[in-house]
Amino acid sequence: MSSYLVTGASRGLGLEMVRVLASKPASEVSIIIATIRSAAPAALQEIISQAQGRVVTVQLEVTDPANVTKVAGEVKEILGGRGLDVLINNVAVSNTTPTSVTATTTLLSTFDVNVVAVQNLTLALLPLLREGTLKTVLNMGSIVGSITYAKRFMVAPDPAYRVSKAALHCLTRLYALELEAEGFTFVAVSPGWVQTDQGGPYADLDSPTAAKATLDVLSRNREDINGKLVNIKVEGWENATGLHKYDGGDLDW
Asked: Which PANTHER family match (predicted)?
């Protein structure tokens, strides 16, 4: 029985990952802690009502260090002496209004959510993760933040988002190297282009498909994924010829 904490669970991939986890038997997933900024939306409330007490919400403002510390205490109480097995850092911001790198003014605010908040929350929950069985942190990365593929994704509208994801990939790698001797797994997962508020309605994948494929990464060999940026695998997309393909391979970052 594993415990999970998913940030940004009000909508999009976060909501769908909570739904997927809640659909698994209690013998596999014991509790899902879903963080939200305010009241739980109807879709999340529905999941909670059907989860027989296995989905619990906590209010989290990831950019408020004091609130992060408070939430870590709440999570400890919820777990009741058990450790946290999996942390999924899903919260992110992106400016979908196209701009160039020379006109970017949101670098600091984007880093605050996409990188600094991940660092602060991971550190706050590290004692609980050390007490867990799986000791796993999944950071939501992105192929658009890959330096190797920078030219391919010049069409992406938000340079600040891309730079922040490049930094997140590096942060993931550093954690993996530093804590692998303790049995930790840190992995960044690129979910591709998804039909969320950020991705828009014409994206490649719907949220349920991308959420399931993202969580499927956790079933892979831990040594194979530790410290890497990993692509999701979606049947029928392994050999796509557009900007994205979803073949489950490692991505250069």
From this structure: CHAIN OXIDOREDUCTASE (CSGA), PUTATIVE (AFU_ORTHOLOGUE AFUA_4G00910)-RELATED, SHORT-CHAIN DEHYDROGENASE/REDUCTASE
Q: Return left, alpha or beta for 66; rule: phi > 0 is left, psi -120 to 50 is alpha, else beta.
A: alpha
Residue among 120, 111, 118 nearest 164 (CA): 111
Three-state secondary-structure class, residue 251: strand
Secondary structure of residue 243 in the 3-state scheme: coil
The answer to whether 206 touches 16, Cβ cutoff 8 Å, is: no
Using DSSP's 3-state secondary structure scheme, residue 200 falls into: coil
pLDDT tens for 156-178 read: 889 999 999 999 999 999 999 99
Tell me which residue range forms the domain holding 174: 2-251
Listed range (46-60, 93-107, 122-136) with the worst mean pLDDT = 93-107
d(CA 92, CA 105): 17
Give the span between the Cα atoms of 184 and 227, in whole angstroms: 10
CATH number at residue 186: 3.40.50.720
d(CA 195, CA 123): 31
Q: What is the pLDDT of residue 14?
A: 96
What's the rounded Cα separation, in Å, for the pair 239 and 14? 27
Our measurement of the distance from residue 34's CA atom to the centroid of its chain's CA atoms, rounded to an integer in Å, reads 12
Domains of the chain: total: 1
pLDDT in tens, 81-97: 999 999 999 999 998 78
Check: CB of residue 171 under 8 Å from CB of residue 119.
Answer: yes
In the chain, the amino acid numbered 106 is: T
Cβ atoms 210, 189 nearer than 8 A: no
